[in-house]
Amino acid sequence: MKIIETIAEMKAIRIKLKEPIGFVPTMGYLHEGHLSLVGKAKAENKSVVVSIYVNPAQFAPTEDLSKYPRNLKRDLAMLEQEGTDIVFFPADKEMYPEGYDTWVTVDKLTKPLEGNFRPTHFRGVTTIVNKLFNIVQPDNAYFGQKDAQQALVIKKMAKELDMNLNVIVCPTVREPDGLAMSSRNVYLTPEQRKSAPALYKSLILAKDLFSHGERNTTNILEQMTAIIQKEPLANIDYISIADTETLEELHTIKKSALVSMAVRYGNTRLIDNLILGE
Amino acid sequence: MKIIETIAEMKAIRIKLKEPIGFVPTMGYLHEGHLSLVGKAKAENKSVVVSIYVNPAQFAPTEDLSKYPRNLKRDLAMLEQEGTDIVFFPADKEMYPEGYDTWVTVDKLTKPLEGNFRPTHFRGVTTIVNKLFNIVQPDNAYFGQKDAQQALVIKKMAKELDMNLNVIVCPTVREPDGLAMSSRNVYLTPEQRKSAPALYKSLILAKDLFSHGERNTTNILEQMTAIIQKEPLANIDYISIADTETLEELHTIKKSALVSMAVRYGNTRLIDNLILGE
């Protein structure tokens, strides 16, 4: 496994890699969710590149950039174990040199849900992912379903800019009690951690209601909200039942829907989602 | 010479082309300026791809999209003559399918000069050029110095998004009387056409003043303005003496400067420029 820190070296080594190339972009502090992406990339490609880069452009000034958890040594050991070929680990000055001013945006799809609470977030995501795609030039790139809106936005960007790769979205990996794996779970106090599976419980409730024929989203949202509100430590940013492609809110579910949510525990913001009718 | 109308076919044929590949994106209605780019691409590459696409995203609703001059048959004959291998000629629905919503922007550099008069123009340019770069995947892409700000913006985009190609800027080609070649020159009435070399005359004056030691831009701009204002049919949008990289206006020229202008004749907007101290 090679660790590459500059764009020039990454591009130089890229030419020598066996194709197809699978790519997993991460912000490090890896967990089983990331490793499932690496495993899928390994199974479907001849070379696997993983990037570790905490992208400042996707954090607002009020967010957790400076305290975002980092543990490079542990990350590298985990990636080596998974059979990763290349780890791309660039510095900020490499990715955003002074005077940097080029941005990739997906407009309407980034307005609701996460975009509503984090208005500059997706511009940072699409820009860094575009750059990483150009640097690594993968055949296949892997993203987690946990960030459902991000996955849709990146798929749309890659398609609409005619990029030469496939975007592959993989299932959310969960703790035994249902909490979606996230690098940010480490922020939770023991009490918050104990309460946090409420998100998944509310999603499972939505699934049960749907499977028993409920199609009215107001009814489903009310019962989901009640489950979360039973938790005194939880503060709901949003709970949404939306079209799986456009992310427009639905009144009635026809064939399928994305049920998604963001819930704050203190300063820690958790997101989770589930697709109904899949 | 093959004419390709879909992205899928262009990508399929791209793989078979001999490398390096030179690419010249155009809006058609070709003139000697375009052909000089094709000639340079031919000399420096093993394959040459030219696109002809009048990009709606770079025209404002008030601008000349619908009446932009077109003559495909003549264009194709000229490109064949120059030894072009592939002409990429896509339809709007191919480039901007329904719901299209991904945009590439370069921020500060697109604010002054042309951007000040055409606020949505460069977003259209950078987006379509980004798409074309991904579709054609050239090694070298050729642009004319006549669109000086466009050339700087595209260079910045390609560099900052880590795209895998060189952007090469070629000298402006002029009519015998100095008028910069442009597809829009066809709009000029005989009287306007007779007056239009005033732009180049004012640039040559700036060059003379500079070569005789003048460094104060107010003095140069005053004399340039006087030359254009002598022409009763000409209306100045701007005359600028700016930094060759940042496009910030200069009070005093140190080493070099971009002298540029936009002048309207009726509804026809002409641009021209020259670099001092090159």
Task: Write the SSE topology.
2 copies of one chain form a homodimer.
Chain A (H helix, E strand, L loop, with lengths): L1 E3 L2 H8 L6 E6 L5 H13 L2 E6 L19 H10 L4 E3 L3 H4 L6 E5 L7 H4 L3 H16 L3 E5 L3 H13 L5 E5 L19 H6 L2 H14 L5 H13 L4 E9 L14 E9 L2 E9 L2
Parallel strand pairs in A: 1-4, 2-3, 2-6, 3-4, 6-7
Antiparallel strand pairs in A: 8-9, 9-10
Helix pairs in contact in A: 6-7, 9-10
Tell me what you see in this structure.
Two copies of one chain form a homodimer. Chain A is an alpha/beta fold and 278 residues long. The first copy, chain A, has helices spanning 7-14, 32-44, 72-81, 92-95, 114-117, 121-136, 148-160, 190-195, 198-211, 217-229, and strands spanning 2-4, 21-26, 47-52, 86-88, 102-106, 140-144, 166-170, 234-242, 257-265, 268-276. The first copy, chain A, has two domains: 2-170, 3-Layer(aba) Sandwich (Rossmann fold); 183-276, Pantoate-beta-alanine ligase, C-terminal domain (Pantoate--beta-alanine Ligase, Chain: A,domain 2, 2-Layer Sandwich). Chain A is built from ten helices and ten strands. The first copy, chain A, has a six-stranded parallel beta sheet, with helices on both faces. In chain A, strands 8-9-10 form a three-stranded antiparallel beta sheet, covered by helices on one side. In chain A, α6 packs across α7 and α9 (198-211) packs antiparallel against α10 (217-229). The first copy, chain A, is globular. The model of chain A has no long low-confidence stretch (mean pLDDT 98). At the A-B interface, β5, α6 and α7 of A face β5, α6 and α7 of B. β5 of chain A pairs antiparallel with β5 of chain B, so a sheet runs across the interface.
